[in-house]
Each structure stands twice: as structure tokens, then as C-alpha cells.
Amino acid sequence: MKALELFAGAGGLALGISQAGFGHLGVVEWDKDACDSMRENARRGHKHLKTWPILQEDVKRIGFASFGEDIDLLAGGVPCQPWSMGGKHRGQTDDRNLFPEMVRAVRETRPKAVLVENVKGLLRQSFAAYFEYITLYLAHPDVAQKPSEDWHQHLRRLEQHHTSGYKSDLEYNVTFRLLNAADYGVPQKRERVFIVAFRSDLQSEWSFPEATHSAQALSHSKWLSKEYWERHKVPMRSRSQLQERERLRLTKADLFSVNRKPWVTVRDALMDLPEPLVRGHRDWPNHVLMPGARSYVGHTGSPVDEPAKTLKAGDHGVPGGENTLASADGNVRYFSVRESARLQTFPDDYIFPGSWTESMRQLGNAVPVGLSEILARRIRKHILIHNAKAEKQNLPRGRKAV
């Protein structure tokens, strides 16, 4: 199956999609440092990246029709800075708002499915009208914005088209959901909006995959079965007051209503890694200790026995107090690049060749590889169902099977 990736960053979303069984026709990213990371892994012969056509280019300058109309999945983590809770909140007025370019790519390539990722801030009430605009534009990409229109005027025209009942040649069924990566086995509490669209002729009955992990199951493994502590050989005396307060907050319902796997914790993710050293480790690339971490109010680091707090990129280097590991005595240290890659579920053979600050920026912006793969596998399954129906009826795969 064929995929095209836009706004690829260091390749987290694209790698998950590759692991799900898609081959990339192109992986597009304008940032040189992020492209250098992908190129270095390709040069090292990484199983997936060695076949990627990595294109360092501004999407505004790409004619997507050159990729053809035989694309199964168009995906991208559209730049999040306009919508980020920590940004300047300029939203649709920000020059970095590239949602219209994503829709243009849909219009020019006509993919069977679309997968878009962005920050939780996109769902804020102040952006509600623009979010409606995004989803309607994805649903009707052929209803292009006119040069004379601003987005408000275009939204009104999209609403009129959507409610008219008129069916154009290219339409998509669009759905979205706010997902917490920890609920899918990622060792990080990372909430992100995912938009999934299927071309209407596929008649796909899509739904987001059910969560597989939960906080309640983690609490059960800590405080009822004690399996968590026993597996990690943690003595009773080492459990912090914070963990004791967690135990006291639990209800019997929390402890006994367990039908999922436990959240994956920082300790789970890093248990086989040695402590990072200032001089690094020969056997563990990118596993270098950076001094200078500090905590302050609201930024106290990630407890070792919970999924990590959301890794952040920061506009001006690594944010102070963020991307840190908190010990029981309240001291913090920065996660190494290798540890951060583990928390974003990058494989250990994925190397970040840039500086520590640049590597942490790329990781803070990345989509967790594991969650990407889960979503891509479900999308792939639905496309395969359509293809099988089309072949049974001797139809071209792009035609409707009824």
C-alpha cells in the first residue's frame, strides 16, 4: 500500500505508518535538521527509512499531482504552533497554519484515506469555527477556496454545499477524536487530536480503536496485585509519599474494574537502560546526561512510576522543568535523547545525529511511533476490506463497491 507523508518532522508518524505495512511515495519536511535525522537513519540502512524518498521542501511549492492518484493514505502532523497551548495562539492568522495545504494535497492526490495529527489546543472554543472549517474542507476538498474569499466566506460556502445534498466527485467522511497516547501503551501522557477521513466511495465504517491500557489497571497492579513493584523489585520503603497519596485516593471500583493493561510507566520504558552519563555510553547512542535541569511551580518533572508528562519541544530550547525525570526526593534531571526516544516509542536503532537541544525539539514535536502504527494498521485494514470487495466485483480499486 502506498502512503504520502507531509510535515514529517523527524519521522515518528511516517515510521509508524511504515511499520503498519505502507510504503512511502514521498516523505516531505522543510526543516533541514529533521531531514538530516531521517537521512542519517536511511544512510545507516534502517529497515524502513532506507526506502523513503525524503524531500526537503516547502509544501506550498509542491505540485502534489506529480505523485499520482494511486495513494492509499495521505498523512501529516500539520504544524501545531498556531494552536499550541504554549504558543502565541494566532490560530488561522498564523503564517504557519498549513491546513489549507493539507487539503490541497487531498484534492490533488485523491487518497483513499487521510490521517492528520495536531495538538489538543486545536479543540479550544476560540478555534471552534475554524475547526469546523477544517473538517468541512476535508469532507469537500473539491470546493476550493476562491482567491477573493477569506476563510469565513469559504466556510459559509462549504456549509451551504454540505447541507444542499449535492454530491461532488470527491468527498470524504471525516471523524476526529482526542486521544491520550498512554491509553494505547505509550509511556507518556500525550493528548493529541487525530482526524481520520475516508473517501466516500470506500463506504468505510470507521471507528477509532478502543484504548488498550488504563490508569486503573496500573493502580491495580501497584496496590492490589503488587505485581508492578515485584516485577521491578522495588522495596516498600522506596515508594514515595506521592505514590501513597495515589493509593489512598483509589476507590474499590478503581481497583476491581480492570479490563485493560496497565499504563506503561517511565520505569517500564527505561528499565534496561543504564543511567545516562555526561560522557555518554558507547553501547547506547544519544544516551548523554545534560546538566542544568531544575523544577519550579507547575514544572516538576515526570514521576518514575507513571507515564511521563508530555514531552515538549519549546520555542527557545528545551523548556526548563519539562522533559525531566523526578526522583522521590524532588530532584530532577533531564531525560537523555535516548530516554526521550523511548518515551516516544522510537526504536533503539533510530539515531538523532543533531545537538541535544535540536534532538529534543524533534522528539517534542514527534508523533509517538507506537500510536501511529496502531492507527495506521486500522486504516490499512479498512482499505483492504474495500479492495477485496472491489476485486470480487471486478471493479477498479478506486471505484465504488456496492
Widest beta sheet: strand line-up: 3-2-1-4-5-7-6
CATH architecture of the largest domain: 3-Layer(aba) Sandwich
Assign a percent range to the helix content.
25-40%
Provide the β-strand percentage band: 5-15%
Order of helices and strands: EHEHEEHEHHEEEHHHHEHEEEHHH
How large, in whole angstroms, is the Cα Rg? 22 Å
Number of strands: 12
Q: Describe the main β-sheet briefly.
A: 7 strands, mixed
Chain-averaged pLDDT:
89
The CATH topology of the largest domain, please? Rossmann fold
Span from first to last CA? 22 Å
Characterise the protein shown here.
There is one protein chain. The protein is an alpha/beta fold and 402 residues long. It folds into 2 domains: 2-211 and 367-392, 3-Layer(aba) Sandwich (Rossmann fold), CATH 3.40.50.150; 214-259, no CATH class. It is 33% helix and 14% strand. The strands form 3 sheets. It has a 7-stranded mixed beta sheet, sandwiched between helices. Strands 10-11-12 form a 3-stranded mixed beta sheet, with no helix packed on it. Strand 2, helix 2 (32-43) and strand 3 form a beta-alpha-beta unit. Helix 4 (128-139) crosses helix 5 (151-164). The longest helix is centred in the C-terminal third of the chain and has 24 residues, at 369-392. It is globular. The model is unreliable at 87-91 (pLDDT under 50).
What does this entry show, briefly?
The chain is 33% helix and 14% strand. It is an alpha/beta fold and 402 residues long.
